[in-house]
Amino acid sequence: MESTLSIIKPDGVARGLVGEVIRRFEGAGIKIAAMKMIHMSKQEAEGFYAVHKDKPFFDSLTDFMSSGPIVVMVLKGENVIKKNRELMGATNFKEAAPGTIRADFATDIEKNVVHGSDAPETAATEIAYFFSQLEIKG
Ligand code: CMP
């Protein structure tokens, strides 16, 4: 059984897409093992996206990610990292496959509705950034 971190970003929460995103996860057989709504400070967003600190979009991304509430979730299931990435679609919504969350709802490369961990190591780090072991079911 694998775990991954999912974030419904400020654009997704503001646009009322929380239920829609969760419906897609549950419809794909993915279990939600932990979930909460938080509002990150700029500093917390910078910490989360530290791997991107040298990218030209870092300042704008961390402004956006601290601009409103987000929903953070731990997803569990077989191959859930890959499954979640398939449900999300490509980072750039213009390249996302039809029927994916980003193809259906993203409005630009930054405001792309969801985030998902890209590998087991990043999943472990990202989950630990938001959740303690006691908050995770199963
Ligand atoms: P995410 O999967 O959360 O990982 C990094 C985020 O940076 C990405 O989704 C986008 O929201 C944002 N971003 C903004 N511009 C770019 C870009 N040119 N390439 C990749 N990610 C970008």
Account of the 3D structure:
The chain is an alpha+beta fold and 138 residues long. Helices cover 40% and strands 19% of the residues. It has 7 helices and 4 strands; from the N terminus they run E-H-H-E-H-H-E-H-H-E-H. It is globular and about 35 Å long. The site of adenosine-3',5'-cyclic-monophosphate has 8 residues, from loops.
Give the termini distance in whole angstroms: 10 Å
Overall outline: globular
Number of helices: 7
The number of strands is: 4
Strand percentage, roughly?
15-25%
Main sheet characteristics: 4 strands, antiparallel
What would you report as the Rg, rounded to the nearest angstrom?
A: 14 Å
Helix proportion of residues, in percent? 25-40%
- Tell me the series of helices and strands, N- to C-terminal: EHHEHHEHHEH
> Strands of the largest sheet, in order across it?
2-3-1-4
Structural class: alpha+beta
By oligomeric state, this entry counts as single chain
Q: Give the integer mean of the pLDDT values.
A: 98
Uncertain stretches: none
Ligand kinds:
adenosine-3',5'-cyclic-monophosphate
